[in-house]
Amino acid sequence: MGGWLFATRAGVAALGSGAIVSAARAEAILGAPVSGQIGFLPANTIVQSDIEWFHNAILLPITIAISLLVLALLAYVVYRFNEQANPVASRNAHNTPLEIAWTVLPALVLVVIAVPSFRLLAQQLIIPAPDMTLKVTASQWHWNYGYPKSDGGFSFDSLVKEDKDLKPGDIRLLSVDNAAYVPVGKIVELDVVSQDVIHSFSIPSFGVKIDAIPGRLNKAWFKADHEGVFYGQCSNICGIDHAFMPVEIHVVSQDAYQAWLEGAKKQFAGADGVDVAQTSLVRP
Ligand SMILES: [Cu+2]
User: pLDDT tens-digit profile of 192-204?
Assistant: First the structure.
């Protein structure tokens, strides 16, 4: 909840920072890092909420408990077995019950982690029946978004805005020239491919991170709970401009999505982008 407040405040601050606020910028920026932030970006899907739970309720307590245990053992050894306190060292080399314990206990910890971990993996990889499919094609160094035939069948390139092109409310290295739009509350299947090298399509607020691999179709999905602007980045080092291929996704109401589609169909009708139908999934 605190995360939401935090990010919303940042969004409002971004809105207030310039006199010209375009229509697109009327949406609150929710899925972007803010300065001083610790932890995850605000979750906007059930998958990301579960990832947060897994981290905060399972991994973090285990990590802290093990660290404190090791620290306590070290401190005890330093205190109890230093040369002054213990001048004659023990010659014991084996302690069977102790050895069984330090094998079985870590194994149990791994079992405890494995159960929610595999559940989460299944949740990410078993894709529910989608309401729409968004085709994401990675290239050095930008993304291309392809919309289904039912929505107009157009595609367009999405490139990072250069510093000189930034408008009030834009975020340096995250804002793009053409953002992708998706409707809120709809299951969006992502078909992710690459035209050249391995990239990775990631949107932290959606719990999505999937490799874009040449010659292979990778799928992911999300169902955004809230409207807003959400950012991500290529997360696999893919060459010199790897840091300059951000992801910007606007989650909007169904009506706003339809309105955007109407404009986008015209705008991108003759665009040079990758044709959705032509992108070969099997490359030589
Ligand atoms: Cu990349």
Answer: 999 999 999 999 9
